[in-house]
Design goal:
Its EC number is 1.8.1.4. One of its GO terms (molecular function) is dihydrolipoyl dehydrogenase (NADH) activity. Keywords: FAD, Flavoprotein, NAD, Nucleotide-binding, Oxidoreductase. The structure is a single chain. By secondary structure, the chain is of the alpha/beta class. The protein has 3 domains: about 160 residues, FAD/NAD(P)-binding domain (3-Layer(bba) Sandwich); about 110 residues, FAD/NAD(P)-binding domain (3-Layer(bba) Sandwich); about 110 residues, FAD/NAD-linked reductase, C-terminal dimerisation domain (Enolase-like, domain 1). Helices cover about 30% and strands about 25% of the residues. The chain is built from 14 helices and 21 strands. It is globular, with a radius of gyration of 24 Å. The N and C termini lie far apart (about 65 Å).
Length: about 475
């Protein structure tokens, strides 16, 4: 067991947003916690994903708004060097000392090193110097190791040293020629950001027939139109079958399935992610080591009968979104406290509700969605009615831009008369998503929602349009 300094009520492996919140909730409930992290405290989101990508996209978003109104024309291209410099400040120049202080101020113990399960309630930490320290948990171990970018097995691709989100978001220079493989959220965001910052020849290779295949079809259509207007070459139904790079700093050539060759300075892969479970020691506690870790409604690993192992965030595969990982962690931490203290009844908030998981693609146009799409609702056999509206018909759209393009769609459960899902696509619409999230999650009856009066003239009037189209 080691000395008392190596024993904690809760041990969290992974100091990304999910791990940090799980530890903070445990400490708030009166337990002691240790947080183990091999890389940067703050995780992928803080340094290589959510935060830096949005720092790169924000100037692009503002530039698009400026272009939409006369009298505010840009005086030349976006200053890429200034944008990259601000990006560096936003990610603290990849210095995690501030994030470590945040953890220690909870207070929790931060342990730098590679954490690995070594049997029930035991975690071995291999430090930067190679020394191994064994930690013992009294009540729970939480795995919060996130996910890693998935690189497909295209011949020559790995050898060509492709970019993933990690290299793209911390790039010191913007390549003039860029090939992006993938048409999901990461591919769309980074293709648009890097193109606007100087990747003048940007080509997207999308294996399917549309962008953002998990969203309503019109979302990908509007975004593809916008990318093409800006000069991005979006190719549907195309895949790379071979990739070559002869020299370390030389160009890369992508050979496509239609026989075409594209030469670029960099190739970026954005084809998905996989749970980060390699060498995590899951086999020592009877959990399948290939991931993701299956959990119950309190984020407790179902394969561990004694119920001491939990998994939150990307590593459990439920929802690969930072805000949903943080939601899971709040729920998980509270459940651990309730069980550790043997509180009467079931653990507080012991049901994870993913039906209202919101998501935003921070492109121009912005793509916002919550709940079910029409196809998902119909596949579930629900009594569906669909209502759509062209956002350009909202009075405030003319104030936003002379050529405003956007659309909104809601999915209604006709029997209960509540929203099952909503998708909003257009410039400057992301702040309207939370209203839709509340309506979906709280199952607000449409007859009640009708009394939530939208302010004139704002884009929120689309709610009035939708409800009137429904017949209210």
């Amino acid at each position: 067991m080691g000395d008392d300094g190596d024993a904690f009520d809760v041990i969290v492996i992974g100091a990304g947003p999910a791990g940090e919140i799980a530890a903070a909730r445990a400490v708030r409930g009166g337990l002691t916690a240790a947080v183990v992290e091999e890389r940067l405290a703050g995780g992928e989101c803080a340094y290589y994903a959510c935060i830096p990508s949005k720092a790169l996209l924000r100037p692009v978003d503002l530039a698009a708004e400026v272009r939409g109104l006369p009298g505010l024309e840009l005086r030349g291209p976006i200053d890429a060097a200034a944008v990259l410099a601000r990006r560096d400040e936003v990610v603290s120049h990849l210095d995690d000392s501030g994030q470590v202080r945040w953890i220690e101020d909870r207070p929790a113990t931060f342990v730098r090193g590679r954490g690995r399960l070594a049997g029930p309630l035991r975690v071995e930490v291999t430090g930067p110097d190679g020394d191994v320290r064994t930690l013992q948990a009294r009540h729970a171990v939480v795995v919060a190791t996130g996910s890693d970018p998935l690189v497909p097995g295209v011949p020559g691709l790995r050898e060509a040293r492709p970019w993933t989100n990690r290299e793209a978001t911390v790039a010191e220079q913007v390549p003039k020629r860029l090939v992006v493989i993938g048409g999901g959220a990461v591919g769309c965001e980074m293709a648009q950001a890097l193109h606007a910052l100087g990747a003048l020849e940007t080509t997207m290779l999308v294996r399917g027939g549309r962008l953002l295949s998990r969203f309503e079809p019109f979302a990908g259509e509007l975004l593809a139109d916008s990318l093409r207007r800006d000069g991005v070459d979006v190719r549907f139904g195309r895949s790379a079958v071979r990739v070559e790079r002869a020299f370390l700093d030389g160009p890369v050539t992508a050979h496509l399935d239609d026989g075409v060759q594209i030469e670029a300075d960099e190739v970026m892969v954005a084809t998905g992610r996989r749970a980060a479970v390699v060498d995590l020691g899951l086999e020592t506690v009877g959990v399948p080591a290939d991931g993701p870790i299956e959990v119950d409604a309190t984020m407790r690993a179902t394969a561990v009968p004694d119920g001491w192992l939990y998994a939150v965030g990307d590593v459990n595969g439920l929802n690969l979104l930072t805000h949903m990982g943080k939601y899971q962690s709040r729920l998980c931490g509270d459940a651990i406290v309730a069980r550790a203290r043997d509180l009467p009844g079931e653990p507080a908030r012991d049901t994870a509700d993913h039906a209202g998981a919101p998501q935003v693609i921070f492109t121009d146009p912005q793509v916002c969605a919550v709940g079910l799409t029409e196809s998902q609702a119909r596949e579930a056999g629900l009594p569906v009615r669909v209502v759509e509206d062209d956002l350009a018909t909202v009075s405030a759209a003319r104030l936003q831009a002379d050529d405003y393009r956007g659309r909104v769609k809601i999915i209604v459960d006709e029997e209960r008369r509540v929203l099952l899902g909503a998708t909003i696509v257009g410039p400057a619409v992301l702040d309207h998503l939370h209203a839709a999230t509340i309506a979906v999650t709280a199952e607000v009856p449409l007859d009640r929602l009708w009394h939530a009066v939208p302010v004139f003239p704002t884009m929120s009037e689309f709610w009035l349009h939708l409800l009137e189209a429904y017949g209210l």
